[in-house]
Amino acid sequence: MAILVYIENTAGAFKKSGYEAVSYAKAIGDLTGQPVHALSIGKVDPVSLQHIGRYGVSKVVEVNTEQLHQFVNQAYAAVIAEVAKNIQATTIVLSNSFSGKGLAPRVAVKLDAALADGAITLPTIKGDTWEIKKSAFSGKAIATQELTAPVKVIALTPNTMEATEAQTTVEIETFQPSVSATDLSTIIKDIVQATDKIPLPEANIVVSAGRGLKGPENWRMIEELADVLGAATACSKPVSDAGWRPHEEHVGQTGLAVSPNLYIAIGISGAIQHLAGVSSSKTIVVINNDPEAPFFKVADYGIVGDAFDIVPKLIDAFKAY
Ligand code: FAD
């Protein structure tokens, strides 16, 4: 019996959320006394494969079939389930990322397993019954999920677990899966990267701005602040609705939910629908010229003042640091 963790990759390297999933799987391994096997699907650089050993994985199963070089939901789910059966995995861990949200339920169905999606805690283990918490109602509540089936699939919310090194000797095994034609009936032919910016769901720091910025021409300073901090940029809904920023940057109830270590909100009022997507951020800094702005109620740090005065000063200060 073992724990299987599927590690997502992009452009041949494992994603940060993948390392977090491995550390989460290792922590479950420590609780249950089971070894952790990692699964890599697609073309991944051999150094990255070896590197996974530093995070407490005893074996890496590499599936490098050409048909699977691009992500295909059904086929990837079939491979994860097949490998899980082969190693008699009782726990399968994935990231609750865009692709993980599609994979986890498929894998759970294939393995007749219990599914904990959006996990934000390690399980409390009482024999075969595990309890895992997830964020519910757009971050306004915490739900406790009880998993009673012998096999469990857990999709971990990115940025809830720190990736920590735990040296082990890793063995890499190549595996040829038996993917059916049906699983490959829809394939992605090509993906062209549109931007080299840090992806929003993966970012440690997010610099976000709202209607207080007055117009798209003023985003230069937001991008500059993000560059200095190594952050991703985000925005409120009206900003993307007005076409000031691309829709992929819209966070909130109807946009992306993010949980970075630091969320800097500039000229955003803090409407409940916006907070729904950002309230699980570890630290929130608000910059707003209205001291009554609702965002201050949930802020860890607040600056009351004009963004056009404060942001350039912050950029200078961070550059000088
Ligand atoms: P505003 O409410 O106009 O606030 C601008 C803020 O900037 C104000 O607080 C003001 O004091 C401040 N400001 C102005 N000038 C300056 C300055 N010079 N310096 C510093 N601060 C300044 N919104 C989302 O963001 N995400 C969602 O997913 C979302 N989903 C929604 C779903 C539904 C069904 C509905 C009804 C609404 C949704 N909204 C969503 C919209 C939401 O209710 C708010 O209208 C929106 O978040 C407000 O955006 P804002 O804070 O950028 O703009």
From TrEMBL:
One of its GO terms (biological process) is fatty acid beta-oxidation using acyl-CoA dehydrogenase. InterPro entries: DHS-like_NAD/FAD-binding_dom, ETF_a/b_N, ETF_a/FixB, ETF_asu_C, Rossmann-like_a/b/a_fold. Belongs to the ETF alpha-subunit/FixB family. Residues 3-188 form the Electron transfer flavoprotein alpha/beta-subunit N-terminal domain. One of its GO terms (molecular function) is flavin adenine dinucleotide binding. Binds 1 FAD per dimer. This is Electron transfer flavoprotein subunit alpha. FAD binds at R211, G267, I268, S269, G270, A271, I272, Q273, H274, N288. Its cofactor is FAD. Pfam families: ETF, ETF_alpha. The keyword Electron transport applies. Keywords: Electron transport, FAD, Flavoprotein, Transport.
